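check this:
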Amino acid sequence: MDYSTYEVYGFDHLSAFNMSTGYKERSYQNHWHSYGEILLVGPGKTNIYSVGKNTYELVPGDLVIVWPMEMHSIVDADRSEALVIQFSNAFINSLFDLRRIMHIYRNLHIICIHAHPELAAKLKKITLKMKDIFFSERPDREIRCCMLLMEFMLTLFEYRKELAPELTDDDTYGYTDDVMRRMLGVTDYIKNNLTADDLSQGAMAEMVGISKEYFSRIFKNVTGLNYSKWLNMIRLEKASELLSEEGRSLTEIAMLSGFQSIPSFNRVFREEKGMAPGEYRKLFVKNR
């Protein structure tokens, strides 16, 4: 693997919003990150994108939605005029309604201009407004773009009945706000307590007052991942953040991220990132 092109941070990770365009390369390797992406497909005869296990051949004007921590790649596409919008996971988590929208559309990754012409046109108009504001360099561009991002999400929500046939997961809508709040409360607790003594699925089910089996089923629907996979991704997200900083040993980073041993830290990190933690850290040293 050529680590020189590995996506360390595709955007300023201190910001809630970022946008980019004008890439010469036609492809980008399979990867994941803690922020989400919206891609407006640009002109060109070939535009092939992959999200999760699915590969999509798209046309100009289609939109791709990649939710936080989803594996995705650009197989072959004209990226010179394609637009990439990146939004912080923390921004989505800041409002319950945004988190609920993300839950509803967790399995929706493509808005096809031919299948949903009115919706695609509205979403494209919003993204182009973001582009004008973001590249204007105005001092309030981030907050204005985040307002438009909320408009983008609300527009998706308004078309939920039209999009319902494309949402294939079980019981996509069926949880009450109370259940959603409790489950999202658990995810918040875990993110803020990665070094807690007991983060087992059983302990978290007890925290929200439901059986372990029911918890497992709801958790998969809410997050898109089974519990152990999600927990490892959150630990890796924390470890990746710490690896970008100076002054901590790999052992300390592993412990602060909730891994119980260096071997398990190295194994999980390599499985998901394609490299050892030490190699990942060198990318930041190289780019400083």
